[in-house]
Structure formats: C-alpha cells, structure tokens
Amino acid sequence: MQYVNSLLDLIGNTPLLRLSRALITPEEPTFDPATAPMVLAKVEYLNPGGSVKDRIATRMIEAAEASGELQPGGTIVEPTSGNTGVGLAMVAQAKGYKCVFVCPDKVSEDKRNVLKAYGAEVVVCPTAVAPEHPDSYYNVSDRLSSQPGAWKPDQYSNPNNPRSHYETTGPEIWAQTEGKITHFVCGVGTGGTISGIGRYLKEQNPDVQVIGADPAGSVYSGGSGRPYLVEGVGEDFWPDCYDRTVADRIIEVSDADSFHYTRRLAREEALLVGGSSGMAAYAAMQLAHELAGTPEGENAVIVVLLPDSGRGYLTKVFNDEWLGQYGFLAARDSQTVGEVLR
Ligand code: PMP
C-alpha cells in the first residue's frame, strides 16, 4: 500500500513544469521564441496547504520545539492573514498546538474563514487606529504573544524561514535541473525564499544568477514603500530574513504586468496561480527575452518559483470588475472565446 501517515510528509518535492516559449513577449512581431531559453516553473501551490509557506511553517515550528520556545499544548501567535497562517495552522493541528492569528480589518472575510476552517482563532484589529493604540494590529499581537505558553514565529526575522529554503527548496531545484540551472527568479516578500534558495544555489555554482522580482513601489527595487496591489511580495522596510548580498539583480514589475501574466498563466498554461506568481513569471519571461539569441542564452535554464494558487484571488485578479476598476483590464485579459477564434 502506498500512503503517508501525516499530511506534513507531503510538503516539498514539488515538480518543475516547463513553461511555453509562447509566453515570452509574443506581442513583439519580430521576436522568435524558438531561440529563447528554457523556463521551468517550481509549482509551490502543490504543497498540501496550497503554498510555499508550508515549508517555513514546518521548519520554524520544529526549531521552536527543539529550542523549548514552543512547549506541548502551546499557542502559536502570528500577525498574518495569508499563506503563512495556513501553513502554521496545518502544522499546528498535526502537532497539537493552538493558533491565534492577528490581522487588520481590511483582510477579506474569505481569508479569515480559511484560517478558521483549519481550527485557528482569528483576532481582527481596526486599521483606522494609530500603531500606539492598544487595539492596533501591532499592540494586540505583542500582547497576545507575551502571554505564558505563547510563541511568535515572526517570519520576517526568523532564520528558519530562509533556512527551510536552503535545506529543501534549493537542493530540490539543484537536483531536478541536474545542476544545469543558470538563473533563479522569485518574488521577494520576507526575503526568505530568495535568500535561502539563492545562497544554496550559489554555493553549488557561484555562476548561478539570482534575480528578485519586486512590485514597483517596494523597497527592494528602490521604491519608497508606496502601495501596490499584488499581494505577498514587496515591503516598505528591510526584513532581517532578506540577505542583501544574494540577489544579482532585481526586476521591478508593475501591477498591470503582474496581473496580465497571472491571467496568461491560467489561460495559456492552465496554471491557476496568485498575482505574485504572475509577477515572478513576468520577470522570468523578460529575462528569457533578453537572453534569447545570445551565447549565454543558448544553454540557459531559468527556474521561476510560483508561490501560491489563484483560488485565493478569484474576486480580485480573476475578476474583470476588480481588475477593470484599476484600469488594468486590457482587451488582452478579457477576450471571449469568439474573439480568440476570430
Ligand atoms: N508570494 C506570496 C503569495 C507570498 O505569500 C509570499 C510570502 N510573503 C511571497 C510570494 C514571498 O516569499 P518570501 O516571503 O519568502 O520572500
């Protein structure tokens, strides 16, 4: 019989999927995609919690158990509303811990309900109060995490976040490409993914190029932290988990391009992924376009990491009204069957 005893045994070992060369700027009539390098997607929504964050949740919890910071029956408290929450809730359930997530009231009810469905408690804080107010997001999470038995993973500064990628995702990519990877592309949020994978790959081969994709406005690409719409990536501060020495280059991607590529991945590759995946894919395709036809491009193998599924964004990226209200709904994003066939 083939089975696993725990859902946690299904974390990692995600596949690499070759993306179509047709994704590389076909708008340009003179461009010949046949000369373009291979682009492989690391499909992280196939983790059991639906995102790359299952990896860091496992590693952060196991390390806290080992150090004694997290005791049997303890409570995990983290300010998160997204994928990290799901990963933590899943691992906590398997190991008998309680979870309390603190999130601002702007977080959609759907996201809160996902966390509750896993058995976590969700504490919602008003956005319209100053950070020093006792009900603010920051103060509530600090107060809860200082209770006896509580432990706060803090994905932004926890070294086990990048370490999980150094120990699992990086070696998987190296083995799956038989060491032929030449470029690695991913989005940057906490910086854990790029720092852990980037460091591992460069230790195997210092010539591997590590490229961060970043929403226009975020600090990694030189922005001031001004708002953007793509979720899970970009920051308005420099987290401890981000190793500033690892990226060879940061490619800035607009919301419009991120969402356009998110839709293309669903429509052309049947990959229903989130906006940060579209952003990373856009950067990878830009890179492939630059390398096409060059000597460096001939044997280039670009790996791009796609962090999560598009299911969590059906009312946003995949909703024409939502996309349209920001002026991002180009004709190319909303073609009907009739228009495509014409
Ligand atoms: N995409 C999504 C959807 C995410 O939730 C995150 C994590 N914030 C990232 C990308 C970026 O990964 P990292 O935090 O490891 O930089």
Automatic annotation (TrEMBL):
Keyword RNA-binding found: no
GO MF assignments: cystathionine beta-synthase activity; transferase activity, transferring alkyl or aryl (other than methyl) groups
Enzyme Commission number, as recorded: 4.2.1.22
Keyword hit for Protein biosynthesis: no
Pathway it works in: Amino-acid biosynthesis; L-cysteine biosynthesis; L-cysteine from L-homocysteine and L-serine: step 1/2
Disordered, as annotated region: 139-168
Catalytic reaction(s) noted: L-homocysteine + L-serine = L,L-cystathionine + H2O
Enzyme class: lyase
Protein name: Cystathionine beta-synthase
